[in-house]
Amino acid sequence: MKELLIELFSEEIPARMQGKASGDLKTLVTDGLVEAGLTYASAAAFATPRRLALVIEGLSEASQESREERKGPKVGAPEKAIEGFLRSTGLTMDDLQVRPDKKGEAYFATIVTPGRGAAEIVAEVLEKTIRTFPWPKSMRWGSGSLRWVRPLHSILCVLSDEGGAEVVPLELDGLVAGDRTQGHRFMGPAAFSAQSFEDYEAKLKTARVILRPDARAEAIWHDATHLAFAKGLEVVEDNGLLAEVAGLVEWPVVLMGGIEDEFLGLPPEVLQTSMKEHQKFFSVKNPKTGRIEAWVTVANIEAEDGGAAILAGNSRVLRARLSDAKFFWDNDLREIRDRGLAGMAEGLANVTFQSKLGSQADRVARIEALARLIAPMVGAEAEQAAEAARIAKADLRSEMVGEFPELQGLMGRYYAAEGGHAPEVAAAVQEHYAPLGPSDDVPTAPVSVALALADKLDTLAGFWAIDEKPTGSKDPFALRRAALGVIRLILANDLRLPLDELIGQANRGADMADLMRFFHERLKVHLRDAGVPHDVIDACLTKESADLALVTARAKALADVLKTDDGENLVQGFKRANNILSQAEAADGVEYSFGADPKFAEEAEEKALFAALDAAEAKITPALEAEDYAAAMSAMAALRAPIDAFFEAVQVNADNQLLRRNRLNLLSRIRSVCLAAADLTRLEG
Amino acid sequence: MADRPRSFQEIILRLQTYWSGQGCAILQPYDMEVGAGTFHPATTLRALGDRAWAAAYVQPSRRPTDGRYGENPNRLQHYYQYQVILKPSPPDLQALYLGSLEAIGIDMANHDIRFVEDDWESPTLGAWGLGWEVWCDGMEVSQFTYFQQVGGHDCHPVSGELTYGLERLAMYVLGAEHVMEMPFNDPQSPIPLTYGDIFRQTEEEYSRHNFDAADTEKLLGDFERAEAECHALLSLPEEDPKTGKRIVLAHPAYDQCIKASHIFNLLDARGVISVTERQAYIGRVRALAKACADAFVTTDAAKAA
């Protein structure tokens, strides 16, 4: 058994790509080795900013010899056929065996592929891995044509066992694999050789590189929390940032600095955004006041001066950034004091939303009208919804959002509160963008819901009206996200909205039927993710379905009942009834849709089905009216036993035409009773 | 920092000396208004074709929208970039770059230098590359790019491009809080001059000019004329009737492309270009850059010696 150690040493790999890259390295190499006939016990991969490393333990020494038997021409076949067979197998006449075959005797060849040593296979697999590596973006450098995420400098590839270590012979565009690498760029630049993974990891550590990303993250978090704790503060958790920062350093050194008093009045989100996005700082808050008062940065070097210059430099950069932020904040507040948030919004008339859809001010006017209309449907006060709509986009004109676009909405909320607007109006200004992603929270406050719906419906109807719909992977105006947002707002708040009418109100020019189809498609995607199969939704959906909450409730009830034995079998019974009926209708050229009469029922099962259909109908109709879909579906499912029994005992196509007609009309009742609950013909399988 | 430069110009001189020592031709700024050092034909055009190349230069750059009347401590509508281009990119380019930081007094033992992902793209030049922004103690001090494509052409070999934002870097090295207070020449000189002594007034004048005074009607016409002339120059027959030689007007045409690009920036600062028009203008400048690149690659300067 051998151990295989691979390191690909390059210039700095983007932090966000390191995790996936180490995983890909492991998968590609282990899959390649196994495919070539080697086995291994375990594998692990690691990444630092400058290297991807892979260790494979318990690797077999060689692949097994393989034998394949191939049948050739018959004995006595033309010379040419035999020559061709010899050529294709690479054998001579003497190597062939003659054995009896179905008709006479035939030549047989045994092709032996000898086993290959691990080194040879590793070289082949690693070369292929490097040449086909799935980087999200790769590049060339110098005069070469090799591609890697950034210039690749060296390849370490060593096979080892108790007997020692050997370098796997491999050359790739001038890069010769060896057993050497180097440590930290500044603290351990001397080259060293590694004989095994243990040796490699230990020497890296001496050369000031922590190989394991989780160990770096842990060290950062440990040191950061301790530094903060010593000052009575706590670090604001941010796992995304922690992973990113761990991918920016090979030897993390944590330093903490304070925020100057003059900036402490800024909203905490401004401090946090400024520090995280631009500087990759962790925010540190005072648990007593809840304010963010300090920051933590992670350097990649143990400085001779203990980090004084690094801290001073970082403080200086932060001061410049926060001075900007404070300048914007003060200017915005002054503007709101002088002219109000509505005054700030005036400038929106000069900003184009979309050339065919007018300015942002035009858009706001449309949203206001729509929000007024929606407000009573969602329990909000129309005047409040309209007020919130008028100031919803005002912060786009603020200096703060100009600098930090990601703070749109949030700044609007602060400014609305500063401008004396009611808390629910201010909240709506922030929340009207939500939900953004599939995991984003859905607003529930009525004013927020009204505004969020109005904003999204205006966008959707507007872009539909100018025929800018999403196509394939292209959705530049995020219309799919907007439609999903509407759907989630409706479902989470159980809203009963006439979506088709609202679209018409939002923009007369929009093709309403087409936009409804789009909503239905998005609803299907959304419910499918929630475990409702698409055909179940189809069974509850018509082109006219404008009330998505009802469609969803019905689909969920149907999906639930289909999971039961009765439900599943009912569908089979329904389909059988429907098929027989459809065939008969096609053959006879008439519609059997009326007049099934229990007095012509002969068999007990037939009579029972009449009774069961009456009973089911008596339950389903009122249940549907009461929107109690669970009751409707279970009443439908209760038909399973009588339908099964009917088909078991009764022949529909009886010789007696009177009986036949009556039975076909009975099948039609099965169809109509079930279809009232859901369109079971749409179900697959 | 033991060996610390004392002025803005000393930092520039040290960079010139350093890169000269690394074998670069030290060029002078291009004599036209450009938005960044990359626009200098010594970078844009020389990154094309297979002829080896090594050059370094200061390039005064203009970004009309960044004007702040000289008041903002860090923002200027006219500033200097230091530009280095090496083709093919040498294997030790990162080390060479770090050497340049040491040359201007940044001590690697006490500062935190980081290469942070930053892919570079210039929609107006039809160019892109991969690389990093280089951070020193959390501050971006340079752009480091391996050109992959310029003017729509794949770069073979690949050029390594380094761009230093000189004011920002110098402010850091010299410890200046406001760009206008930064010593331009040695503060011990008989006539010490700050950056503000030289540029405060021009920042005011150009800020007013760029935002409010530039004649937009004239600029719109200038853009059209530059665009038309660029195409006209490139459509001339390759053989010069006077000398009988093949003379393709790649550089004169490219001058018109530079001109169109700067006029577009001015129009943008004047606020007369809508969001939708913006894309169209960028596309038109890119078409010029691409046409110039197409022409340049057919000339001797693009071919291996």
TrEMBL record, chain A:
Keywords: Aminoacyl-tRNA synthetase, ATP-binding, Cytoplasm, Ligase, Nucleotide-binding, Protein biosynthesis. It is found in: Cytoplasm. It is an enzyme of class 6 (ligase). GO terms for biological process: arginyl-tRNA aminoacylation; glycyl-tRNA aminoacylation. Residues 574-674 form the DALR anticodon binding domain. The keyword Cytoplasm applies. The keyword Transcription regulation does not apply. InterPro entries: DALR_anticod-bd (IPR008909), Gly-tRNA-synth_bsu (IPR015944), Gly-tRNA-synth_heterodimer (IPR006194). Its EC number is 6.1.1.14. SUPFAM superfamilies: HD-domain/PDEase-like. One of its GO terms (molecular function) is ATP binding. Its main location: cytoplasm. Transmembrane segments: none annotated. It catalyses: tRNA(Gly) + glycine + ATP = glycyl-tRNA(Gly) + AMP + diphosphate. It holds the Pfam family tRNA_synt_2f. GO terms for cellular component: cytosol. PANTHER family: GLYCINE--TRNA LIGASE, CHLOROPLASTIC_MITOCHONDRIAL 2, GLYCYL-TRNA SYNTHETASE. Tetramer of two alpha and two beta subunits. NCBIfam families: glyS. HAMAP family: Gly_tRNA_synth_beta. Belongs to the class-II aminoacyl-tRNA synthetase family. This is Glycine--tRNA ligase beta subunit. It comes from Pseudoroseicyclus tamaricis.
UniProtKB/TrEMBL annotation, chain B:
The keyword Ligase applies. Its main location: cytoplasm. Its EC number is 6.1.1.14. One of its GO terms (cellular component) is cytosol. It is an enzyme of class 6 (ligase). Keywords: Aminoacyl-tRNA synthetase, ATP-binding, Cytoplasm, Ligase, Nucleotide-binding, Protein biosynthesis. The keyword Protein biosynthesis applies. GO terms for biological process: glycyl-tRNA aminoacylation. InterPro entries: aa-tRNA-synth_II/BPL/LPL, Gly-tRNA-synth_heterodimer, Gly-tRNA_ligase_asu. GO terms for molecular function: ATP binding; glycine-tRNA ligase activity. This is Glycine--tRNA ligase alpha subunit. It comes from Pseudoroseicyclus tamaricis. The lineage of its organism: Bacteria, Pseudomonadati, Pseudomonadota, Alphaproteobacteria, Rhodobacterales.
